[in-house]
Amino acid sequence: MRKVLLVDDEPFILQGLKAVVDWKAEGFEVVATCANGLEAYEYLKKSPVDVILADIKMPEMTGIELLKRIREERISDAFFIILTGFKDFTYIQTALRYDCMEYMLKPVEKTELIGVLRKIAKVSDEREEEAQSRESMEQAYLARNLMALLFGKYDAANVTYVRDHLHLSDEIRYVDIEMSDYTQHAEELEEGEMKGRQRQLYSAVRDYLREEKDHCIFDVSHDERNYDIGLIYCDYFASKRGMGPNDLLEGLHDHVLSQCGFDVNIFVGKAVDHIDAISKSYTSACMLRSLEAFRTRKNIYYYDDEAASDSNSVIILKDRIDSLIDAISSDDTAAIRTGVDAFYGELGTGTSPETVRLNVNYLLFTLIHMATQLDDDLDQEEILRFIAEHSSEEGILRGSSAHMASFCCDYAQYLTQLRKNVSGGVLLEIEKEIRDNYADNLTLRDLGKKYFVNSSYLGQMFQKKYGKSFKDYLTSYRIGRAEELLTSTDLRIAQIAERVGYRDNDYFLKKFIEANGCTPSKFRKNNI
Question: Among residues 265, 286, 269, which one has the least CA distance to residue 278?
Fold first, then answer.
């Protein structure tokens, strides 16, 4: 309901205005009445309204004086309607100069007032829609600049924009917020419902942050299996509220749980001292997320605490792990199995689960570092995803040396493949795959699994070398083979479409016309 303030020094006029229309039916509510402009002025300094109807001639302060003061002092931008018993062009000019919506003569007629209220409602709706659209575009552009920084692929313009639009501090962290049971939900709910829950989470986080809501980013990972919210966390968030950093994030967790009805996990990356380095904090938060299965279950994980306990603990079997790392780096299967046996042998059967966790974490963090050293442009989430998919709590954490050995052998092959990727060797393999199997259902996802490369990273490599996406490259190759068959055989169009990999004849025609500017039949006629 839009709030209305009525201002007139004659009580019966006020009563008449309240009774002349059904305010509620028009979407308005009369929240207060004032006897003069000064009284209204004092009211507006404390209580905002959407619409003001004020008489011109009043003691203490006239309606025109009220309008002028609230505009000049920026107290209210409410729709203003002047009421008067006579016309005076001078008054009208002044009123319009200070953004007066309407100038109505007394006595106010019902139909006229309803018309003005509906005009206000329409203009108000348009303004709100425009403001929401503008805010959405600004949020999207800010998010785009922030993600450039998070992924480490930014320039000075990205940094400048973020610094100009966010209040930052000397200590900044990336915080990843995710539905703790999203995998279970994803199996039970449709994609639209999961996206709806993600938007609900985004709204709840922004509601909790209030003045810092623009530090929140929707859907950072763009992973189809992940429904996350990102947060650029600054140390002043907690201090300005008189809270400790842990208290603020615990409060965020509880707020989301109460508002959304589902639980979340929060992964807090390591601290950095300027926004240019936020990608390091982002990567550390992603590590925490991917290695969650190897840690004691909790609502909030802090990288600083987890990394410190992993690397500084006296029970880390560093020599054994370093020896195993050397074997993995060399892709020496026999040495890997020997190293795993020695690792588990020294841990012993009576070792606590927490000790196993600490040692496994140290190993995994080291493996991540090895991969990133091979290629600076490597998508680090791809490494984390490989580890998450090839290791499991059931195997590694419960002391299965066979599972650990299998994982380490897989990772050794993965590192070997990464070394080939750096030199572009994997693209030669995929070129051959296309030549030999172009009629099959080839996808980046399947090829990525086969060659141990994340599909998004593989797509980036493909675009960089060929200047086109994998899908466009495959389409071009298929159409080229179709052209050969059209000019060298008598096969029907539908047969050619199927032979080059198109089960849908209409889709084949569309892609062929896009490539050649004519139908296959016309192409055959013109080239035989």
Answer: 269
Cis ω before 107 (30° cut-off from 0): yes
Domains of the chain plus CATH, in order, are 2-108 (3.40.50.2300), 138-285 (3.30.70), 313-423 (no CATH), 426-527 (1.10.10.60)
Mean pLDDT confidence for 519-526: 90
Which residue in this structure is represented by tokens 């046996």? 341
CA distances to 30, 76, 299, 469 from 84, rounded to whole Å, are 20, 21, 63, 69
Please state, as a whole number, how many other Cβ atoms lie within 10 Å of the Cβ of residue 164: 9
Structure token pair of residue 290: 């991917």
pLDDT tens figures, 378-394: 555 556 666 666 555 45
pLDDT digits (tens, 9 = 90+) for 45-99: 999 999 999 998 899 999 989 999 999 999 999 999 988 876 665 666 667 777 8
Q: What is the crossing angle of helices 425-437 and 401-422, to 10°?
A: 90
Its sign, for the CA torsion 396, 400, 401, 402, is negative
pTM of the model: 0.53
Residue 206 confidence (pLDDT): 94
Residue 444 to residue 11: CA distance in whole angstroms: 76
What phi, psi does 167 have (nearest 5°)?
-85, 105
Sign of the CA dihedral with 285 first, then 286, 289, and 293 last: negative
Ramachandran sector of residue 210 (left: φ over 0; alpha: ψ -120 to 50; beta: rest): left
Residue type, 208: Y
Question: Taking the C-alpha atoms of 325, 330, 334 and 339 in order, what is their torsion angle to the nearest 10 degrees?
Answer: -10
